[in-house]
Amino acid sequence: MTLNNLFKIFASIIFVNYLDSRINVFMIDYYLSFSLGFLVFCFWVFSLPNNIYALTSFIIGLTIDLIAGSPFGLNALLFTASSFVIHTYRYSFRIFSFLQITIFFALLSTFYLGFINIFVNTANFSYLLIFFSFFLNGLTWILIYILMNKFKKRFYK
Amino acid sequence: MARIAPGNTPKFAYVVLLILASLFLYLDLQYKTFTSTKNVFNSALLSSNLLIKNILLKPISNLYNLTTSKNDLIKLNRSLEDALETIRIENFLILNKATLFKNNEGLISYTESSAINSLYEIAAVSSFDTNLYKCCDSHKLFLFNNLSPFREGGTVINTEGILGQISDSNMRVSEVILISDINHSMPVKLNNFYCNANGTGRPRILECKYDASLWPESFSIGDSFYSSGLGGIYPEGILIGNIKSIKLADNKETILEIESLANPLTQNHVMVIYPNDFK
Predict the structure, then answer these.
(1) Per CATH, the architecture of B66-179+264-278 is what?
(2) Smallest Cα–Cα separation from B264: which of B205, B178, B187, B165?
(3) This prediction's pTM
(4) Tens of pLDDT, residues A4-18
(5) How many CB atoms lie within 10 A of CB B70?
(6) How far is A27 from chain B (nearest CA, A)?
(7) Domain B185-260 homologous superfamily, CATH
(8) How many structural domains are present in chain A?
(9) HSE value, Cβ hemisphere, 13 Å, CA-based, for A65
(10) Distance separating alpha carbons of residues B238 and B171, to the nearest angstrom
(11) In this complex, which of B25, B33, B131 lies closest to A24 when CB atoms are compared?
(12) A100 at the B interface (CB within 8 A)?
């Protein structure tokens, strides 16, 4: 993978993560929380499994920790773990239908959201938020899959 | 039974990095090892933001304003807004002078000893993550430093009341822990009843737990709580907020939920005072 492509991947995740934090301010009142940054990261690992391995995931996670002000290492841990899970199932995805893949990523983002909330929102942990966000992130995955594929075709060389 | 297809995922690298990330997380949560790193990064981010705004965006917006001949009006409006905010905060200080500063001597000595020739310092909010404020337990905001960094323990107020205290400073920005932060606790009182109002991690909500068998007090919704001054940080007698709800915990403790009057979302300027240095 060229440095240029790595930068594009990095920039897309950081930008979407920023967007995420802006949108979630309003969504949180309705027990909903997007994890757009994480889903875009998952998309890149899913579509470029030979290019994004442990170190890239770790560095992206650490950068997001720094930018988002979350406990240092939290996103790094979850991004690396998710990358491992996606890599483990990468050949199985070939026989999965799109619906199954959507459910897989919705579940993964629900776990991500749950773990984040355990660490940063322990006192007010809400199962309702996690439950609703499963459906929201499932729908978002479809949108991200379509949009990021277009982005990839246009900008990723 | 379905099996995971074999792949060439390098497990060793994953294991090493997962352990490293867990170690980082443990060190940060347990010892706050990376707090200064995060603050330095934050201030660098803010500085570059400001630089970009001043060098790139401001000239463009000024050019646009010149062509539409609204520049002066916009500037005047902005300065009036700032002045109004400052006056409102000053007004709060004047109204609460008696309680913020124990006596006139304290006020005079504070004025004389202050490096900045002022009773207080007005500071601009540099960044406030509203998403974290609404979603999570940690409630912090950052202020631009004036001539010198704010001292730890300084009380941060706005026109509505006490927002929090300075918890950390570096050369450019100071971190303020808000009273609703899960790790924050402030001593409050209502008549002869004293308790520690702990932050709940929910916007503007504090919690006071007490054993009803030890304190046979009766409260009703809407009762006002004031700072007791016992912690040595906040001045005594400032209205903090009103009781929003009264609950009974499992261990027979009573929980009073207090909604603070001060809302950090409303203003861009705050005031930092150090009243208890001169008690």
Answers:
(1) Beta Barrel (2.40)
(2) B178
(3) 0.75
(4) 888 899 999 999 998
(5) 12
(6) 10
(7) Rod shape-determining protein MreC, domain 2 (2.40.10.350)
(8) 1
(9) 27
(10) 30
(11) B131
(12) no
